[in-house]
């Protein structure tokens, strides 16, 4: 891969990873809005945050394993494919929570790939 293409891939993966991390950090601020929008209790909404961090932990652990077993190009494409369903919107809290966890996995894949590329 040329230096230019490699640079574009690193910049795009960095941006996607940063945006995902920013959205994860700002999740707590949206708790009152989520409670009103979906008519659920605070305890239920907190599971969204717990699911986010659980998915982040699992993804960070499994990405190291996958990087040993698969080509980086394949991992990058897999993370890109996770981006599409992760950006869908839902009127159902449970399905929206599931989509958010998929988006978390996508973000962490990109972050790990960028860190590996610079390492």
Order of helices and strands: HHHHH
Please provide the count of β strands: 0
Our estimate of the beta-strand percent is under 5%
Structural class: mainly alpha
Task: State the helicity in percent bands.
Answer: over 70%
Query: Gyration radius, to the nearest Å?
Result: 16 Å
What count of helical segments does DSSP give? 5
Average pLDDT taken over every residue: 78
Please give the largest β-sheet.
none
Description:
The longest helix is centred in the middle third of the chain and has 28 residues, at 42-69. The two termini are 17 Å apart. The chain is mainly α and 119 residues long. The model has no long low-confidence stretch (mean pLDDT 78). It contains 5 helices and no strands.
């Amino acid at each position: 891969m040329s230096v230019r293409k490699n640079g574009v891939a690193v910049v795009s993966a960095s941006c996607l990873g940063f945006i995902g991390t920013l959205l994860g950090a700002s999740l707590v601020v949206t708790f009152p809005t989520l409670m009103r929008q979906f008519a659920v209790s605070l305890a239920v909404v907190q599971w969204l945050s717990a699911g986010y961090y659980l998915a982040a932990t699992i993804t960070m652990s499994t990405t190291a394993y996958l990087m040993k077993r698969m080509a980086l190009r394949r991992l990058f494409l897999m993370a890109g494919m996770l981006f599409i369903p992760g950006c869908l919107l839902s009127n159902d809290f449970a399905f929206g929570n599931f989509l958010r966890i998929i988006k978390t996995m996508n973000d962490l894949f990109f972050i790990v790939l960028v860190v590996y590329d610079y390492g």
